[in-house]
Design goal:
The chain is α/β, with parallel strands linked by helices. The chain has helices at residues 45-54, 56-69, 105-122, 142-156, 173-189, and strands at residues 6-10, 15-19, 31-36, 77-81, 89-94, 127-130, 165-169, 195-199. It binds ligand AR6.
Length: 202
């Protein structure tokens, strides 16, 4: 059983878990999500950590994708091998750069989560881990980003054909606590039968 600080349980038994402080490169979900940039050629933050831990086969595949489709716009997602990672796949998405909230950042961030879930589900993946997209180098305020992330995943997961469990693997305790608060809030606003909020043991 995986560690979690809190989780949301849906009526159909699917779960969203919140874990941290934790390193997503160590995850044993079938796929992990990378907060990439449009070049798909790597960068800093979680992107660098994933390429470093997964090895060169991830970058090779990213280069093949860019040769075929060009750069990846914000809000979209593609999938590659996980290379040497425990996760079999990496889903690469590009979140929005935060510019004060008047540049459709909220829609683009929601789209990054939805597109990542869709590509994973299309590959028959049953478990997926997300970092906190856009809240590092891209500057998205964490409270705002967490509310969008949790709401979008909670809206998208129940109808997926294959995905059963989505984890938020959050690097620092402040970010983790903000996501847990967002999850608790969402459960309070939902009809009591549709989703249950539960504290965990990590
Ligand atoms: N595991 C989990 N989360 C992590 C890890 C890790 N190993 N390392 C960092 N984080 P960022 P962005 C957290 O900057 O804001 C890159 O250069 C980090 O603490 O990685 O979407 C790309 O190439 C933060 O909470 O992604 C892009 O150019 C979160 O991951 C740009 O940064 C996201 O921080 C993307 O910026």
């Amino acid at each position: 059983m995986s560690d979690f600080a809190a989780r949301l349980i849906f009526a159909n038994g699917k779960t969203i878990e919140f874990d941290g402080p934790a390193d997503i490169t160590k995850e044993v979900t079938e796929a992990i999500v990378n907060a990439a940039n449009s070049t798909l050629l790597g960068g800093g933050g979680v992107d660098a950590a994933i390429h470093h831990a997964g090895g060169p086969s991830i970058l090779q595949e990213c280069k093949r994708i860019v040769a075929k489709i060009g750069t990846l716009p914000a809000g979209k997602a593609v999938i590659t091998t996980g290379g040497r990672l425990a996760a079999k796949y990496v889903v690469h998405t590009v979140g929005p750069v935060y510019r004060g909230g008047r540049d459709h950042e909220a829609e683009t961030l929601a789209s990054s989560y939805r597109a990542s879930i869709e590509v994973a589900d299309d590959h028959g993946i049953r478990s997926l881990a997300f970092p906190s997209i856009s809240t590092g180098a891209y500057g998205y305020p964490i409270e705002k980003a967490a509310a969008i992330a949790v709401r979008t995943v909670a809206e998208t997961l129940p109808a997926c054909a294959h995905l059963q469990n989505i984890r938020f693997v959050l690097f620092d305790i402040i970010t983790r606590n903000i996501y847990v608060t967002a999850a608790e809030k969402l459960s309070r606003l939902s009809p009591s039968t549709s989703v249950i909020f539960e504290k965990g043991h990590s």
